[in-house]
Amino acid sequence: MTDRPYVIEPMISAKAIAARVEALARDITAHYAGCDRLVVVGLLRGSFMFIADLVREIDLPVEVDFLEASSYGDASHSSKEVRILKDLRGEIAGRDVLVVEDIVDSGFTLSHVTRLLQSRNPRRLEVCALLDKPSRREVEIRATWTGFEIPDEFVVGYGLDFAQRNRNLPYIGKVRFTE
Ligand code: IMP
Ligand code: MG
């Protein structure tokens, strides 16, 4: 299916993303006011662009760490199996942890990752997701902060891929197959 021809239809512009990221960072900065123990955890690979822009706008001392979980092969099908491919480098016990995710779809990835991180006894654990497809949810989970709610479309760009392609687009677009 990944070699079917498709076009990418723009959905959220780079300018709209930048404005939303700035607003999210303002809320996050206010929420963690006075905190000097914030660890921002990016879920690889999809959140790399979002976390880079988000931390630049957070006006607090932060540490950045990464975790890679996988519930997808190279196609756009969800699975309930979540594997940790790369774990955090740092300890999070007693720390304020902000998990940064590209998109919440079925919710399996986020629910697995938050359960794993909670078991390490952080002081507080919150989630900031750039995108949310609430109509696709299979397990109940909500991010503390969400950038945009979107309909049930497969989207790419700004870090998100389709079969590892299109992560470098500066905007978010939906995949439309032409055949
Ligand atoms: P969930 O476990 O079903 O919530 O899936 C979350 C993960 O699936 C995200 O972190 C993405 O990597 C991937 N994903 C879900 N929907 C999309 C999409 O529309 N475009 C690209 N990746 C997606
Ligand atoms: Mg992901």
Summarize the structure.
Helix content is 22%, strand content 32%. With 179 residues, it is an alpha/beta fold. Strands 4-3-2-5-6-7 form a six-stranded mixed beta sheet, with helices on both faces.
Structural overview:
The chain is globular. Helix 2 links the parallel strand 2 (38-44) and strand 3. It is 22% helix and 32% strand. It has one domain (14-151): Rossmann fold (3-Layer(aba) Sandwich). The chain starts with 5 loop residues before the first strand and ends with a strand. The relative contact order is 0.22. A six-stranded mixed beta sheet has the order 4-3-2-5-6-7, sandwiched between helices. It has three helices and nine strands, in the order βαβαβββαββββ. By secondary structure, the protein is α/β, with parallel strands linked by helices. The site of magnesium ion has 3 residues, from loops.
Compounds present? Answer: inosinic acid, magnesium ion
Distance between the ends:
11 Å
Give the overall silhouette: globular
The total count of helices amounts to 3
Q: What kind of assembly state do the chains in view correspond to? A: single chain
CATH class, please? Alpha Beta
Q: What topology emerges from the helices and strands here?
A:
Elements: E1 6-12, H1 14-31, E2 38-44, H2 48-57, E3 62-70, E4 83-86, E5 96-104, H3 108-118, E6 124-132, E7 145-149, E8 155-156, E9 172-177
Parallel strand pairs: 2-3, 2-5, 5-6, 6-7
Antiparallel strand pairs: 1-9, 3-4, 8-9
Helix pairs in contact: 1-2
The chain binds inosinic acid and magnesium ion.
